[in-house]
Amino acid sequence: MTYTKEQAKQKFGELVERFRYNLDVYKKSSYNEAQVRIEFINPFFEALGWDVSNKQGFAEQYKEVIYEDVIKVGRSTRAPDYSFRIGGQRKFFVEAKKPAVNIKEDVSPAYQLRRYAWSAKLPLSVVTDFEEFSVFDCRIKPNPNDKPSVGRIAYYTFDEYLDSDTFDAIYDVFSKEAVLKGGFDKYAESTKGKKGTAEVDSEFLKEIESWRELLAKNIALRNPDVSIYELNYAVQKIIDRIIFLRICEDRGIEHYGQLQTKAESGDVYMHLLNHFRLAESKYDSGIFDFETDRITPDLTIDYKVLKTIIQALYYPKSPYEFSVLGVEILGNVYEQFLGKVIRLTAGHQAKVETKPEVKKAGGVYYTPQYIVEYIVKNTVGKLVEGKTPEEIAHIKILDPACGSGSFLIGAYSYLLRYHLDWYVSNKPKKHKEAVFQVKADEWYLTTAEKKRILLDNIFGVDIDSQGTIEFSSDIGITLFPYPKIF
Predict the structure, then answer these.
(1) Residue partners of 210: CB distance under 8 A and separation at least 6
(2) How many whole angstroms separate alpha carbon 6 and alpha carbon 344?
(3) Can you tell me the distance from the alpha carbon of 61 to that of 439, in angstroms, rounded to the nearest whole number?
């Protein structure tokens, strides 16, 4: 059913009345999160126009609302409960709690939500148990010591939902109609620029730049014969490998906490190298190619340096949630990261400097994601339109100055969506080598098919060898976008 604004308010009234009537029951700890989602939160957002249960039967990549599998790891939850999307693009998250939880005063729900939304670069998101509805500005970098009020820009209780001002405030921002007409973006923009605002990509860039300096200085100190090339290569490879595997952990591809375990061992670097070699046999990726890498296995690195880097990637120290950190965000970070290089002084000390060509150009410029998507749609999209996978296999897409590969990743992602749509529309059960079914109307490309598309169609070259290393890393991450199926 599609609700008008008046009908939505009427539905709110029914939910509010039922909740008030049985409030004592709902406030008991035995009334769990799954129940409140089914009985109140789902119909609440359905009244706001969202197809929560996918009655339209859209394929997974086009569903308006995605339910995430919730996996507890220590004190943190590994996935937001709801992701609300338009055209497959996330707009906001909703974290659900049971009414026994005091959302206004409890630190955990707020920090949990803000980590996810900040990592996904979403401006606004919501925590609710239906009894309370808390809206957060998620551009403020989350800190585990934050009060629950940090970043909170609106707070309502169920008793206020029928007040005209409150109802309008919720409907005019979070209804599907409001999102489509720009009300959500307008509201997000009007709340932007408060003290403490920090974009995830700029913060992550600062983080990995500090790791680069820490690693470079230690490697130069402990390995007096290392050359400038070897130093740059080693630092880049080690950081890439750690981040790649950490992302795989949060996406459910690797067991959570493996890197953290290695950091607690005696000889951290030896255990890390063994872990990297295991990844080489598992992923068959250039990131872990030890046949060509004759440098990193012979290095000496102090355990404190590696422990510092790895511990900074885990809860509660880490504000990042890598399961929702988009590859386009990583691309932006690495474009900036590649603008600097490590030099060796006469005393064999490492020093990080801006590359001369970058200094001359006035900095590194990253193409915004919406421009990448527009160009890909109007080039690759028109090139493959109406073609079969067999016909597309002969098409070569080359970026001769790929950097971290933002355009090629965009093209690859487009091809993945196109192939999946084609298989689903053309008797998918006949293409078992290319797709598999998880449940009704939910199909995924196999890893083998994603790899085939990558090797058949995507080619990148760059004068800077660091750029092709980063492109390899980002593409490797793009190969595994769906943690629930592994």
Answers:
(1) none
(2) 69
(3) 14
Distance in angstroms (rounded) separating the CA atoms of residues 221 and 216: 8
CA distances from 393 to 389, 426, 446, 456 (A): 6, 17, 16, 6
Sign, Cα dihedral of 274, 275, 280, 286: negative
Amino acid 77: pLDDT = 46
User: 322 near 254, Cβ under 8 Å?
Assistant: no
Strand 76-77, strand 72-73: pairing: antiparallel
**399: which strand partners?**
460
Q: Count CA within 13 A, CB hemisphere, residue 263.
A: 17
The CATH number of 5-190 is 3.90.1570
Q: What is the length of the chain?
A: 486
Q: What is the mean pLDDT of the chain?
A: 85
Report which DSSP code applies to 184: H
pLDDT tens for residues 252-296? 888 899 999 998 888 899 999 999 999 888 887 778 888 889 999
Model pTM score? 0.72
CB 431 within 8 A of CB 423: yes
User: Which amino acid appears at position 228 of this protein?
Assistant: I
Positions of E strands within 35-106: 65-67, 72-73, 76-77, 82-86, 89-96
Closest CA to 222 of 300, 161, 332: 300
Beta bridge partners of 133: 128, 156
**Closest to 108 in 3D by CA, of 146, 153, 68, 137:** 146
Instruction: Tell me the two tokens of residue 104.
Output: 């206004």
Which pairing describes strands 435-439 and 442-445: parallel, antiparallel, or unpaired? Answer: antiparallel
84 forms beta bridges with 65, 92
CA 209 to chain centre: 20
Q: What is the pLDDT of residues 427-479, one digit of tens each?
A: 888 999 999 987 777 788 998 899 899 889 999 887 766 555 555 555 555 55
Reduced to 3 states (helix: H, G, I; strand: E, B; else coil), residue 279 is helix
343, β-bridge pairs = 351
Q: In this structure, are strands 152-157 and 132-137 parallel, antiparallel, or unpaired?
A: antiparallel
Which distant-in-sequence residues (6+ apart) come within 8 Å of 237 by Cβ? 287, 293, 295, 296, 469
Give the side-chain half-sphere CA count within 13 A for 429. Answer: 3
Q: Give exposure, 437-461, as e/b (b: 16+ Cβ within 10 Å).
A: eeeeebbbbeeebbebbbebbbebe
Please report how many Cα atoms fall inside a 13 Å half-sphere around the Cα of residue 59, on the Cβ side. 19
Which pairs from 260-263 meet CB under 8 Å and 24+ separation?
260/310, 260/311, 260/314, 262/310, 263/306, 263/307, 263/310, 263/311
